[in-house]
Amino acid sequence: MLPLLLGIVLCSTAQAHFQLLYTPQAALGESAALPLALVFSHPFDNGFTMDMGRPEAFYVVHQRGEGEPKTTDLMEYLQPIEWKGVDSKAAAWLANPPRSVTRSLGDYTFVLKPAPYYEAQEDKYIQQITRTMVNIGGIPGGWDQPMGLPVEIVPLDKPYANWVGGVFRAVVMANGKPVPHAEVEVEYLNHEPQIDVRRFDPQGKVTAPQGSFVTLSIRADAQGQVMIGLPRAGWWGLCALDLDDGLKHQGKELSLDAVLWVQATDMVK
Amino acid sequence: MLGVALLMSAAVAHAHNAICSCFDNGDDTITCEGGFSDGATAAGVPLRVFDPSGKVLVEGAIGKDGTFKFARPKGPFRVEMNAGEGHVVKIDGRDIEK
Known about the structure:
In chain A, 5% of the residues lie in helices and 45% in strands. Chain A contains one helix and 22 strands. In chain A, a hairpin with a 2-residue loop joins strand 21 and strand 22 (252-265). The longest helix of chain A has 13 residues, at 2-14. Chain B has strands at residues 4-7, 18-24, 29-36, 46-50, 56-61, 67-71, 78-82, 88-92. Chain B starts with a strand and ends in a 6-residue tail after the last strand. The interface between A and B is medium-sized, with 19 and 21 residues.
């Protein structure tokens, strides 16, 4: 009974919802076509993957050095798919934009505004505006600039250039202003997405000793700044919760969250 | 290297690299992008295209938009972006893709 009971407790309380905007590699030496998987899940243990509706917006902003930012809409590349979690499957999306979309050097900020998700357990909607940044060739551009989204986590360190053991800092912003003491959840993408077979690797990389380690709950400081350590290679998700009070969707409360993905890389020869 | 080259400019005082990447526009022209790893502009940095004998086929410079476009030479060629202090980024024309 104990393992079963523990499982139920973990599913209902300890996991956080995270919108994935996944591509395998955040820092590429040269331009390539980037595969993207859009999955709404619990990245640490993937006990339950949630159905996604058609996203409201999906685009990429490219900037090379001090050049003008250029936005490319990606909605036309969305393909509806079924994604397998460890013990569930759900509606998700893949996108395979051609190499021409990411052919230039510089920063590419992918932005996803998913459809609001109805969370029955809490009788409210969740919408996570999600950003994943990719760099090609090592010329930066715009990674540290707010994009003017209603809610966003603005990096103070490049999200694509982090050594394992380093720290990552960012500022939580809502409507252009830092959010003091924002509630932020942090999860490690423990089950690697396998885009070709449309599932998460059933084998996780690590085991949490206790529920508090599945989702790391932290608070921003008085300036809205958060700092996390990056103890293991791979993707780390930051999700700032419910940043715009009083929003409604179809008569119910809407939690508007901001998600940012950060990739840590091992120091190897 | 597939058309991308970077240069560790250890001898230069700045802690940044010169980076150049070229792609084939599919209309018999090639666009090369230049820049630095700190995001600084490479506008004005000389860029030359040579044939295998070392003859200059095209001579130009990275523009204000960070790029330089030229007609694809008929034969083999290489691109060199000269970021100064003897540091030159070289790209073989065979590595330049669409």
